[in-house]
Design goal:
Elements (H helix, E strand, L loop, with lengths): L3 H11 L6 H13 L2 H17 L1 E2 L6 E2 L5 H4 L7 E5 L2 H10 L5 E4 L17 H8 L6 E4 L5 H14 L5 E4 L15 H9 L2 E2 L3
Parallel strand pairs: 3-4, 3-5, 5-6
Antiparallel strand pairs: 1-2, 6-7
Helix pairs in contact: 1-2, 5-8
The protein binds zinc ion.
């Protein structure tokens, strides 16, 4: 336990994902000893990300305009939507070069333990996008772990009455992991080998 400002900083850093108490303390002391120009640059980057980056009103991906670069791209296939958990997953799928459709970013996965239900995710927005019948295939590319599988099953059941093709990435992805940790080749292969999900 430290005094005032140092402890406040440690507490704030400790709230970041993947930063435990020890790391928070190490980062805090690193910043304390750092050049003030470096710290100023970090502060500016934080301000910019909050001021300039928004979320695409269509798909929920990060965007610097009303709609993201992918949703604005007229060459993308409008009949396929790939559902992912986070914007970083969009980047992972884009890197494979296997997908030419559009995305839908849920903003997480269903997790009873963390108290995250369908209403906390962009599920309603997804249903709205599917309503006019343009989309004929929904690829569920949520993470290959418990929460991701539960989310995929939930969505597959939910959209079943709409009669579109619902697919899930092929096996071969590291189970229990995160989509972003799969290498491009593995993820690309899982994409081209996707299969229909029967629920
Ligand atoms: Zn978008």
């Amino acid at each position: 336990m430290y005094e005032g400002a140092v402890q406040d900083l440690i507490d704030e850093l400790g709230r970041l994902p993947g930063v435990g108490p020890k790391s928070a303390q190490r980062i805090a002391f690193h910043l304390l000893a750092a050049d003030s120009t470096d710290v100023t640059r970090l502060i500016a980057a934080l301000h910019r990300v909050k001021d300039e980056v928004r979320f695409c009103r269509v798909c929920g991906n990060v965007a610097e305009a009303d709609e993201c670069r992918i949703c604005r791209d007229a060459r993308r296939d409008l009949t396929v939507i790939c559902v992912v958990e986070e914007p970083k997953d969009v980047v992972a799928v884009e890197r494979t070069g296997e997908f030419r459709g559009r995305y839908h970013v849920l903003g997480g996965a269903i997790s009873p333990i963390e108290g995250i239900g369908p209403d906390d995710l962009r599920v309603r927005e997804l249903l709205t996008r599917l309503r006019d019948g343009t989309v004929t295939e929904l690829i569920l590319a949520t993470d290959p772990n418990l929460e991701g599988e539960a989310t995929a099953t939930y969505l597959a059941r939910l959209v079943k009455p709409m009669g579109l093709r619902v697919t899930r990435l092929a096996s071969g992805l590291p189970v229990g992991g995160d989509l972003e940790y799969a290498d491009e080749v593995t993820l690309g292969r899982a994409f081209s080998g996707r299969r229909s999900l029967d629920v």
